[in-house]
Amino acid sequence: MGNPNILDDVFEKFVNEAKLFKDREVLRHDYLPDKLPHREEQIRLLGQSVAPVLKGSRCSNIFIYGKTGTGKTAVTKFVLSHLESKAKEYGAPVKFCYVNCRMTGSEYRVFASLSQSLGLSIPFTGLSVGEVFDRFRVGLENTRTIFIIILDEIDALIKERGDSILYELTRINEALQKSKVALIGISNDLRLKEFLDPRVLSSLSEEELVFRPYDAAELRNILLERSRLGFFEGTLSESALSICSALAAAEHGDARRALDLLRVAGEVAERHGEAKVTEDHVREAEKHIEHNKVVDALKNSTLHSKLVLLSVYHLSKASSNATTGEIYDIYSELCGETGSSLLTQRRLGTLINELDALGLLNSKVVSMGRYGRTKKIRLEISRSMVKEVFSADDRLEKLIKYEPKLLSKNLRTSH
């Protein structure tokens, strides 16, 4: 019966001793503060772009991009919530719907969320995408509103499913008389334009807003502002604040990362029963976050990205570097094992580049002298980590143990 007492101690110690956080929710990156420092310019520009709806006109479609943690979502939600209260004041028929495309994951579910926000009920599955789209269009026409659709992390959906959803939405106004649609697309990937059909691109980016990364001084301001709300006075050292801003500025000015570091550092200090958050706590927090970031990136990859990683995982037993051709051969075997349809070798190249950008693979072009150049690809994370994460997934567990025929054949021929 000793176990409950351990927990009693843990919980009581926490309740009685934890005096660092005034409000830890404020330190989460999805918390929307009352003011957004260093984004006044973007707030003004976005405000000017959407203002016409207050007089019943459709505003331009707007394309917003910038890296993660540069305030794109926060600014958009901030401007639109103010727009909503102004629209009520003026009696303007404006509605808006925010959809995170990474979370929703499919066109069906995007249209379903848009329909639900208009009060239409759409079954969770069972209709074709075209049918859901038609119901949405008819429902929208009946509401007689200007409907602003915010598609956040739209790059995630387009890379996975193509841009047909944008094609439908950018053309929908041709079929509407009493209602109008305006789109705000938000992307973390600056190269998203390369993935888009030129027709979609020209109608989507009638106006563009680019968010540049924050520098260390700006990040420090943001953190200072939040830490006043989040921590009790005197519990956060100057050096902890500076190092959080410096680390996040080095990682391309990501305010989200800076806030995570600060919050986790506070949690580390709290666990140690310390009265002040120091630089050491930030260093320890960084290790926790790095580990979790890699695990999340692995878990949240799409099936084909996982198959590519597994192909490199298997090849890494034989040699540290693999070529795109070798990866494709093993990837084809793994697709056969899972009954998945093969992607083209060109599409595989794109996936390898994305995994490289995420820091899961490392691909570099090597000169082979007179034989031209080739790409050498290796795992950037430990094999044990790949094994640990993928073994927890029933579909992938057998692929971890699988022995590719190609490899056993090559080993036999090399002996």
CATH class of the largest domain: Alpha Beta
Oligomer: single chain
First-to-last CA distance: 59 Å
Q: What portion of residues belong to β-strands? A: 5-15%
Q: What is the CATH third-level topology name of the largest domain?
A: Rossmann fold
Percent range for helical residues? 55-70%
User: What's the number of helices?
Assistant: 19
CATH superfamily of the largest domain: P-loop containing nucleotide triphosphate hydrolases
User: Element order, helices and strands?
Assistant: HHEHEHHHEHHEHEHHHHHHHEEHHH
**Average pLDDT rating:** 89
Principal-axes geometry comes out as globular
Structural category is alpha/beta
Radius of gyration: 25 Å
- Count of β-strands: 7
Give the spatial strand order of the biggest sheet.
2-3-4-1-5
Keywords:
Rossmann fold; 3 domains; 415 residues; 7 strands; alpha/beta; 57% helix
What does this entry look like structurally?
- With 415 residues, the chain is of the alpha/beta class.
- The chain folds into three domains: 40-210, 3-Layer(aba) Sandwich (Rossmann fold); 214-298, Helicase, Ruva Protein, domain 3 (Orthogonal Bundle); 301-414, Arc Repressor Mutant, subunit A, CATH 1.10.10.
- Helix content is 57%, strand content 11%.
- The protein has helices at residues 3-17, 40-50, 72-90, 101-104, 107-117, 129-143, 154-161, 164-171, 198-204, 216-230, 238-250, 255-271, 279-299, 303-318, 324-338, 345-357, 383-391, 394-401, 405-414; strands at residues 62-65, 94-100, 146-152, 180-187, 207-210, 361-367, 373-379.
- The strands form two sheets. A five-stranded parallel sheet has the order 2-3-4-1-5, with helices on both faces. The chain has a two-stranded antiparallel sheet with strand order 6-7.
- Helix 11 runs parallel beside helix 13, helix 14 (303-318) packs across helix 15 and helix 14 (303-318) packs across helix 16 (345-357).
- The model has no long low-confidence stretch (mean pLDDT 89).
